[in-house]
Design brief:
It is a single chain. The chain is built from twelve helices and eleven strands. With 271 residues, the protein is of the alpha/beta class. The strands form three sheets. Strands 1, 4, 5, 6, 7 and 11 form a six-stranded parallel beta sheet that branches. A three-stranded parallel beta sheet has the order 8-9-10, with helices on one face. The structure holds zinc ion (ZN). Zinc ion (ZN) binds next to strand 5.
């Protein structure tokens, strides 16, 4: 059994009655509990990638910084799971919902996840538009909530850029500033681990990947697959709601297949 690193975005309670803008991002606590129990039964040990063994380690990560991630704490304690939250600071600092949720909510069909300017798009929204989606299902963590998580032994924070602008095309040159602003915000929390970095949208050019490998000990992608103990690039398995992509354990197994890697490579190459 190889080492696995899993990526989640949002969690919901079974009783949650919010209608999510991007429902495929949400995994329920029960679904997560089942998955973690199954992995534990298969002999996986929950660790951070920097502390993993030769095999059978499983790491749990979250990207972005949705407030609903707080719900994971009970499971983290139940299974003794140290987990990393890769947080994009603009949203917590300004208390604005994530731009991809807002754009979908306001039906901006022309907005491109990869190619548009996140900062300019956020500025172009009215205050009222920015107040939409500040419910518990969509809003980012507040600074107070991050401080509360900061006091928990299982919790670790790591950089994911400031506005979540993907390092793509002309925006590659903004990466230093994006990381600098992000780290400046994250430094107020003791759980920060500055050695890890997760790419916004999981993409980057090979040049940027190489450059950031020199800056961080480990960089995290969403390319699927497994990792070896001393790897500096951690290819994560991104999980989606079972309603859209089938049982979580099947999703993991599918992403271990070479065909998944080819498909993902083709998608990224087309961007
Ligand atoms: Zn992200």
């Amino acid at each position: 059994m190889k080492n696995l690193c899993l990526l989640f975005h949002c969690i919901k309670k079974e009783t949650s009655d919010y209608s999510q803008v991007n429902p495929s991002l949400y995994i329920s606590l029960d679904e997560m509990d089942d998955l973690l129990g199954q992995l534990k039964n298969r002999g996986y040990e929950f660790t951070l990638p920097g502390k993993s063994k030769e095999h059978s380690s499983c790491s749990i990560t979250f990207d972005d910084g949705y407030s609903n991630n707080i719900l994971f704490l009970d499971l983290a304690k139940k299974y003794k799971i140290p987990f990393i939250l890769f947080l994009s600071s603009y949203y917590s600092e300004n208390q604005v919902p994530y731009i991809w949720d807002l754009m979908k909510f306001h039906k901006h069909n022309t907005w491109s996840f990869y190619k548009d300017d996140y900062y300019e798009s956020l500025k172009s929204l009215s205050t009222n538009q920015k107040m939409d989606l500040m419910d518990d299902s969509h809003r980012p963590l507040t600074i107070d909530e991050i401080h509360a998580l900061d006091a928990e032994d299982e919790f670790y924070l790591a950089p994911h850029t400031h506005t979540h602008q993907p390092f793509y095309g002309n925006f590659e040159e903004r990466s230093d500033e994006e990381i600098h602003k992000n780290l400046k915000f994250l430094k107020q929390f003791k759980s920060l681990i500055e050695t890890e970095f997760s790419f916004p949208c999981g993409i980057s050019s090979s040049k940027k990947r190489k450059e950031l490998k020199n800056k961080f000990e480990r960089i995290y992608t969403v390319d699927g697959g497994t990792y070896n103990k001393d790897d500096r690039v951690i290819n994560r398995i991104s999980l989606t709601s079972p309603k859209y992509a089938g049982p979580l354990l099947d999703q993991i197994e599918n992403q271990l297949k070479w065909i998944y890697k080819v498909k993902r490579w083709v998608t990224v190459a087309r961007l």
